[in-house]
Structure prediction request, 1084 residues.
Amino acid sequence: MTIKQGTDKTRKGLIFNIQKFSLNDGPGIRTVIFFKGCPLRCAWCANPESQRKKTEKMFDEVKNCSTIVGKYKTVSELMKIIMQDKDFYDESNGGVTFSGGEVLFQAPFAIKLAEAIKARGIHLACETTGFAKPEVFNEFYKYMDLVYFDCKQWNPVLHKKGTGGTNELILKNMQTLVASGRKYCIRIPVIPHFNYTNEDAKQFGKLFRKIGVTEVELLPFHQFGLKKYTELGREYELKNVAQLHAEDLLEYQKRLQEAGVKVKINGW
Amino acid sequence: MCTTITADQEVFGQNVGNFGKLTPKMHNYRESILDAKPYVDPERAILTTEAYKKYQDQQVDIIRARVLEHVLENMTIYIEKDTLLAGNQASHNRWAPVFPEYSMNWVIDELDTFEKRSGDVFYITEEAKKELREIAPFWKHNTLEDRGYASFPPQSRLFYDLGLIGADGNITSGDGHIAVDYEHVINNGLVSYEKRIKELMKQLDLTDIKQQKKLYFYQAGLIVINAVRGFAERYADLAEEQAAQTIEKKRKNELREIARILRKVPYQASSTYQEAVQAIWLTHLVLQIESNGHSVSYGRLDQYLDPFYERDIVSGRITAEKATELLTNLCIKTLTINKVRSWAHTEFSAGSPLYQNITIGGQTKDGRDAVNPMSYLILNAIVQAHLPQPNLTVRYHHGLSDHFMRQCVEVIKKGLGMPAFNNDEIIIPSFIKRGIKKEDAYNYSAIGCVETAVPGKWGYRCTGMSFVNFPRTLLIVMNGGKDPESGKQLLPNYGHFTRMKSYAELIASWNKSLREITRQSVIIENSCDLALEQNYPDILCSVLTEDCIGRGKTIKEGGAIYDFISGLQVGIANLADSLAAIKKLVFEEHRITAKQLWQALQDNYQGEGQESIRQMLINEAPKYGNDIDEVDQLIVDAYQPYIDEIAKYKNTRYGRGPIGGFRYAGTSSISANVGQGHSTLATPDGRFARTPLAEGCSPEHALDVDGPTAVFKSVSKLNTKAITGGVLLNQKMSPQILRSAENCEKLVMLLRTFFNRLHGYHVQYNVVARETLVDAQNNPDKHRDLIVRVAGYSAFFVGLSKETQDDIIERTEQTV
Ligand code: SF4
Prediction:
């Protein structure tokens, strides 16, 4: 029954996690809303449970129990949780961050929720891969005080190979965002065998200069998602790929900087 | 532009995280203390017995003064080679004196088991055992404990004996939980008290028996002041002797300086910084030779010491390094003080803590930020000394600078469990509402761990009266007023849980029963205070507390300006979660019957199918600590009858001088959650019998699944304004999280929200990795100075019993 109601696109959103006091998703103290469902299928995805746009089962072998991932929630249900930490946002200049999955995949609902959040005067950020029709993106980003925008590949062919989608829409939306003067942060997940060569860095640099991006953040590849693939009973192609650390990206960073872009490594 | 915030060290200045290192001298001194094994020391007991015999015919104030005098004149004294401050409590460092006048039975009973304890081990020589056995007969039926027991009305005694109300500390110790007026001591010297007493003595009209009684107090006051002066002189003589024998020039001069200072202070006013520190230390020490009460606190050390420091800096007499060295010296000295408690009492205070608190920060009497250079030096000293004592508290207020807050977070990162924060924004208004003068309210300090009082003006035990076990009370209520374990009918029978039809019915009997227990706790407390007042006045402590001299009364007779007390209510989270589970699963959703639940509790969840009942209780009922109104409100409501009831009962000083004379609630369970858990059968929150209860008002561990903001929200729903005795919140954080400066800043924001907007009372952080604790359990030698926060205080981890260690490990988060 609930699933059926959830198909009404603006009434309920499919959410797979809500994290209060999230430390790494924007300024101040924040609550992060994780939207379930993503149009892409990145081979390195650390949140495979976020990809499908429906509820699904995850089985933890150690604890010998299964949980259902994803729950349909209304705007008012989510607002109730968001408002619980209002004092913390106000004191710390924090707020709410939309994450995923891909929030744009549920844009109509996300916009409804964004309206409610902005009506309360709360700072709103999102993490997106920008893969959506420009009209959708254009309507959506205007609610955002800050956009974290993932840019995974400069090369459309390789992009399609690694993520299942081309980067055409992504680059277009990125351009719109940069030109809009809104606050943003472009991030590159640096993945071995996908975008980790010095040539990649050089090309990214070129691309950014063209679009007008002056600063980016690098996210080194990690294996935090490994266990989840097993729990979902799925194959994970990058199982044996070694993780990257901040120090592994210094050369890469240098190349990018040579193209005139400021680069920060968000290592762990 | 990239807007991710980066850790901006610049904003906070360059000093953040830089605390300096111990000087080689202090390093050696600290090592020698860490090496010292705690022994039970009979010396004070023997001297006390001699004095009691000699002065038996005197008025009680005089007896008590003469006892202190006799001890100070005859006890072993020494000056260690690496110290700049003189003064020792027992015949060796870390040895624990015995105070036979307060209680002696357990000392004798436990003589052969001190060394075999599972935690807080004390060694004892055969010679010492013999000496203690020799004096024991004199103390038969002649101690505070004996007199306290004798004064309990029979029904109240039952509550005490069954452990439902704990008061082991009250009935086995003298004045404690107090900060005397050190500011006055260093600025005016003990001589000022002497003068005042002499003046007032002259005015006495001895035909009036009341005034005649004052005479004894005054005489006693003069005796102790003179005794402290003589004690200081003994050290001066010793220092001179040692100087004469010392060839090395530097040490020779140091010893001469020690001698010079001790000829002067604390009797006379201090003029230099070092004199002030020495005067504070000696006074603080003697208070803990006079009485074995713990939580004897320094008050606002940064406030009264800073003028001395700044004067010496300006005159070039001292450097910041030297001043810090003296502070570390004071910290290490503070750790030398030790207390041996009965095994029963040890469970309430694991890690033999003395809770000697130093408070810094806060506001000045006129409401300005009080942080000064000394505040920073004290942080440095605490980090350098890296010891579980003294216990450091920072008074938070909204105007505390980010720089100072960040520095505090850096201290927290060191894993000391310090500083704890108390919040001016709630404590000051609560005090003013209770009748404390504004300038005094702004001058409060922490006493012991979370509790607060105005230093130098407050009677003893602003908290630390009796312990009431809430979850166990619930079990008795459910059992129709009968203690399920002993079968004794303690409370009126309002019906058995298994026959109750609604949650409202349960809560109605809870309310009536809790009020009855509250009354019993008052009777027990008053009995202890009565015996203390009649037989065990602590004269020096009273002399140094305003306005005992003015009134010619000891603290226990109503000498203090303010006198509010509070006890400790234990197991707040267990009660909350139990009530929520009962309400939802038994009465609302009928998932289990009251009978099934009651049976499971009796069987400690060991019977067939009872583990799944337990899992349901844990997983399917809402839990306190997650910002869920429906459960948070249950504990707020269930706590209120206690708050209302306790407020009705005056303490034994009411109407005899002090402002107040009342009681209020408090939740600083110290480690009583372990001890009281021991005597508590399985509870409806799914907790097994005899396992620890939750500490303070912290959520039950691992059940606060929604992060720190939710914990703060839940805790702040408690009626904090009325729980003036302290609302203790212990929080954990993995050291990994605090590695980034950005996250440290977020911790500051988190704290600010809790204090500025949610008006929290207190919070402290345990920042230690679980792996480290497990390793320390297996390799104690490698971790002899590993410190953990127990509840309101810090302790050496390896000194704790396995059970307490396990409880702490359980509560410690795994790192990623
Ligand atoms: S865009 Fe993000 S959520 Fe979607 S598949 Fe790629 S990594 Fe996963």
